[in-house]
Amino acid sequence: TMMPGETPPPPAGTAAAACANCGVLQQNINEYVAALISLKQKMIDGDRLLTEYQQKCTDILYFSIKILALRCQVEQMLQKILPLEKCQEELGSLKAELEEKKV
């Protein structure tokens, strides 16, 4: 079977046939080497993209934990603020009552 880019060899047993076959072989080797270099570069690029993706996943996890902690802090603050707001309302009512008694 002939490879892509191959030309049919000259009749066997001649020096021309040997030279032509060597030329075709060299061309095929060059093509395979180029394909291997291209494949290696794609693997390097793939590894780099994978590393970047993993870093982004790590960042997302880190920020998710931070956000969760901040939500808990906000919830705790709200729980402290609600009783204070109630006290403020009660103080307002008492103040109003005192004002009425003064008058």
**Oligomeric state of the chains?**
single chain
Provide mean pLDDT, rounded: 89
Structural class of the secondary structure composition?
mainly alpha
Strand content: under 5%
Number of helices: 1
Radius of gyration: 40 Å
> How many β-strand runs?
0
Order of helices and strands: H
| Overall outline | rod-shaped
Largest sheet: none
**Helicity range of the residues?**
over 70%
Roughly how many Å apart are the termini? 114 Å
- Low-confidence parts: none
Organism: Rynchops niger (Black skimmer)
Protein name: ICE1 protein
Task: Explain the overall architecture.
This protein has 103 residues and is mostly helical. The radius of gyration is 40 Å and the shape is rod-shaped. The longest helix has 88 residues, at 15-102. It is 85% helix and 0% strand. The model has no long low-confidence stretch (mean pLDDT 89). This is ICE1 protein. It comes from Rynchops niger.
